[in-house]
Amino acid sequence: MNNSTIRLTSLVKTSGCAAKIGPAVLHKVLEQLPTFSNEKLIVGYDTSDDACVYQLDDSTAIIQTVDFFPPMVDDPYVFGQIAAANALSDVYAMGGTPATAMNLMCFPSCLDISIMKEILLGGYEKVKEAGAVIAGGHTIADPTPKYGLCVTGFAHPNQLLTNSNARTGDVLVLTKPLGIGIMNTAAKAELTTPKQQKKLTQVMTTLNKYAKECTNNLSVHSCTDITGFGLIGHCCEMASGSKKTIHIHSEDLLLIDGAEEYASMGIIPEGMYHNLDYLQDKTAFISDISQCKKDILFDPQTSGGLLLSMPESDANEFLSRMECYSPWSRIIGEVKDYEQIPIQIS
Question: Where is the site Important for catalytic activity (predicted)?
């Protein structure tokens, strides 16, 4: 088979974070498993947070995460960049700084190893940009290509961020636009324009490093990154963990150009339906919203932005700082005392 004619996305059924197991299935399994008890384990999987955190001493906590998925683009170098940016994001969401990374690679025999090299080089470039190092990894033969990283980072225990400490009166800031899963689905069907594809790639390859750095010396009460469970899924985890209600203003959301158009055409990733099935009973729409915008709210994101819960004055300072890095950050809602349901959308 001629590698020049092979599209990476033609080798996969689902791509990016849309390939994640749906939240209903995942939570059903995790609820049946015992949790580990250790006085130094600050954050485990029982809180649905972005990474685990283990305290080494009074001044150092280690953050560990792993993330990999099938390609959502055909360019192997760009795929490597996106997968690495996505994996690194979990450390930033916990308030940490990445230090080391290990490659995870599944690679089919039908592809030339030059493609493997390009994927790994893309990951290398983003890890280097993060100021971390790649120190090995693991590869297996697999008909479906997949790539990602195991990442280790560090933070002071007093500076950790979790998804379960949002406070009443906080506003919510989102640092990247929505609609990534829908746009990737459209791209797989060769519907997107070159301009749309360029913008989509820019969003997915942008590290959340810069958003995390812009929170320095600001009060951030809670944080998570928006990936496979969509905006509503990750907001629901924050609301439930914090025992609050999150109110989202749909008119304040920034959407990637083309996302509403493709959603209205039914170009929807399968993961959106998994998210909707699990989350619809946890969500109240309190005003009329178009169906395509509802789909985008549940759309699985790949290498999405950070969602920050913080006082409004700090949020405004954060937005001012972020202007140097990207035009995407927006205040999209607020945190309220619990009102019978985790998520409200107007």
Answer: 20
Q: Exposed, middle or buried: residue 8 (CB in 10 Å: 0-12, 13-18, 19+)?
A: buried
Distance, in Å, from the CA atom of 246 to the CA atom of 322, rounded to the nearest integer, reads 23
CATH of domain 3-159: 3.30.1330.10
DSSP E strands: which ranges in the chain?
41-43, 52-57, 60-69, 97-107, 133-141, 146-155, 171-174, 222-225, 244-248, 283-285, 306-310, 330-337, 343-345
Between helices 113-129 and 76-93, what is the axis angle to 10°? 30
Residues 201-259: tens digit of each pLDDT: 999 999 999 999 999 999 999 999 999 999 999 999 999 999 999 999 999 999 999 99
b/e per residue 250-267 (b: at least 16 CB within 10 A): beebbbbebbbebbeeeb
Q: Where are the domains of the chain?
A: 3-159, 171-345
Of the residues 17, 52, 150, 214, only one is catalytic, namely 17
For residue 188, the SS3 value is helix
This prediction has a pTM of 0.92
Token pair 């004055």 is found at 313
Fold classified for 171-345: Phosphoribosyl-aminoimidazole Synthetase; Chain A, domain 2 (3.90.650)
Q: Are 158 and 220 in contact (CB under 8 A)?
A: no
Under DSSP, the state recorded for 113 is H
17 assigned to active site: yes
Give kind and range of the element (H or E) at residue 85.
helix 76-93
Spell out a b/e string for 273-308, using b for 16 or more CB atoms within 10 Å of the CB, else e: ebbbebbeeebbeeeeeeebbbbbbbbbbbbbbbbb
Q: Which residues are annotated as a binding site?
A: 20, 47-50, 67, 90, 137-139, 225
